[in-house]
């Protein structure tokens, strides 16, 4: 690091979520960026780095914003890139390459009629089309197959799995921004429309329009701004590309464990220090896999562990307190990272985790990411 700079989030912003006709990814990203700058008390001219995600053109976005940053990057739309982008911003600030980096996400997928499945499915990449003759034409089918294996190997049950979406919907009921706030019980879950065995409708994330932005700068500078700094104390990535056309037989256990272990080591904290967890929940099984890979639940026992209520507000590790992708909205990890910041700042209202100082964000994917946020610098 240059001059012992450490990175911190100094501002966050989001738009409304849902169907927002007439607003492009550029419009939504610009709204979120303006909100984040206002949150931080910064002018756009004070931002020298710009990373955009899911927004088609960094050049057009910067033109619309009226901004000429010193550093710019555009990244693909896969959800794994929220963690990659934040890790990159941290590196830019701590190396001294940039003083302040804006990360901006915009998605008009619902209004555009976007789907993740069917004959035009592209989430797997062209090589994934080998699965199509077997009916595997969506990411949901990929995760359903993994969950079937987990059930066969460890005895995980649908009733145990149900505790994840039930809990996250209970949290969403406390979040005015959440798209889905009507609670359901075990019977409601078990009777939900089946999609791809064993996954039901309530196990799938919510495709919506929305925008999100974070501002990352040095901790010393952040301390002088409008909101208290939230330090990015530890961040690590681990890829799992070899053989990734096929579902991983270990449920990403090894790369998740390595990323989490390195992230905690950099932060000088451990799992037991975490007050809340934000876990990428594109589908319910991903939550179970993440809990095991990060060491919160014993390997193979995540189903039983979640059924004990650990993820609920008031539990040992409240998770996805905003409702997450399953109930708030699918912003591909961005809103979960923002929720981590808001929890540490004590701004979550009825869903606030009392005394939250350390929050862990994790994503299980071919690029596993682990980010430890803290209200304390060290």
Could you characterize the architecture of this molecule?
The protein is of the alpha/beta class. The chain folds into two domains: 7-113 and 208-227, Peroxisomal Thiolase, Chain A, domain 1 (3-Layer(aba) Sandwich), CATH 3.40.47; 138-206 and 235-374, Peroxisomal Thiolase, Chain A, domain 1 (3-Layer(aba) Sandwich). It starts with 6 loop residues before the first strand and ends with a strand. It has helices at 25-40, 58-65, 80-95, 139-154, 158-161, 163-172, 186-190, 219-222, 253-267, 284-293, 302-307, 324-327, 334-345, and strands at 7-14, 49-53, 71-75, 100-107, 194-196, 199-200, 210-218, 230-239, 276-279, 358-363, 367-374. The chain is built from 13 helices and eleven strands. Helix 9 (253-267) packs across helix 10 (284-293). The chain has a nine-stranded mixed beta sheet, with helices on both faces. Strands 5-6 form a two-stranded antiparallel sheet. The radius of gyration is 19 Å and the shape is globular.
Q: Helix fraction?
A: 25-40%
The beta-strand count equals 11
Order of helices and strands: EHEHEHEHHHHEEEHEHEHHHHEE
Mean pLDDT: 94
How many discrete domains?
2
Distance between the termini: 16 Å
* CATH topology descriptor of the largest domain: Peroxisomal Thiolase, Chain A, domain 1
Find the structural class using helix and strand composition. Answer: alpha/beta
Task: Catalogue the unreliable spans.
Answer: none
CATH class of the largest domain: Alpha Beta
- CATH-assigned homologous superfamily of the largest domain: Thiolase/Chalcone synthase
């Amino acid at each position: 690091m240059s001059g012992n700079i450490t990175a911190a989030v100094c501002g966050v912003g989001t738009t409304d979520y849902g169907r927002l006709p007439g607003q492009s990814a550029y419009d939504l990203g610009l709204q979120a960026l303006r909100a984040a700058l206002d949150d931080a008390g910064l002018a756009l001219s004070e931002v020298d780095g710009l990373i955009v995600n899911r927004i088609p053109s960094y050049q057009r976005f910067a033109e619309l914003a009226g901004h000429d940053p010193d550093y710019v990057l555009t990244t693909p739309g896969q959800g794994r890139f929220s963690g990659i982008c934040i890790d990159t911003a941290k590196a830019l600030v701590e190396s001294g390459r940039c003083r302040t980096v804006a990360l901006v996400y915009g998605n008009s997928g619902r209004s555009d009629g976007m789907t993740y499945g069917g004959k035009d499915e592209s989430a797997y990449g062209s090589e994934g089309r080998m699965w199509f003759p077997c009916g595997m034409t969506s990411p949901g089918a990929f995760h359903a197959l993994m969950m079937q294996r987990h059930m066969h190997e460890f005895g995980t049950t649908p009733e145990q799995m149900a505790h994840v979406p039930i809990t996250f919907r209970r949290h969403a009921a406390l979040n005015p921004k959440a798209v889905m706030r009507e609670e359901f019980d075990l019977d409601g879950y078990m009777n939900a429309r089946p999609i791809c065995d064993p996954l039901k409708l309530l196990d799938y994330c919510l495709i919506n329009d929305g925008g999100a932005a974070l501002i990352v700068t040095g901790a010393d500078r952040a301390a002088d701004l409008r909101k208290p700094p939230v330090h990015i104390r530890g961040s690590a990535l681990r890829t799992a590309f070899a053989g990734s056309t096929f579902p991983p037989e270990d449920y990403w256990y090894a790369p998740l464990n390595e990323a989490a272990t390195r992230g905690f080591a950099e932060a000088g904290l451990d799992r037991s220090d975490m007050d809340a967890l934000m876990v990428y929940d594109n589908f319910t099984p991903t939550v179970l896999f993440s809990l095991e890979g990060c060491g919160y639940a014993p390997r193979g026992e995540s189903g039983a562990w979640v059924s004990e209520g650990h993820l609920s507000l008031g539990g040992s590790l409240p998770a996805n307190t905003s409702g997450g992708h399953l109930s708030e909205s699918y912003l591909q990890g961005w809103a979960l990272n923002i929720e981590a910041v808001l929890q540490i700042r004590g701004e979550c209202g009825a869903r606030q985790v009392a005394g939250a100082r350390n929050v862990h964000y994790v994503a299980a994917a071919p690029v596993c990411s682990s980010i430890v946020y803290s209200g304390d610098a060290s």
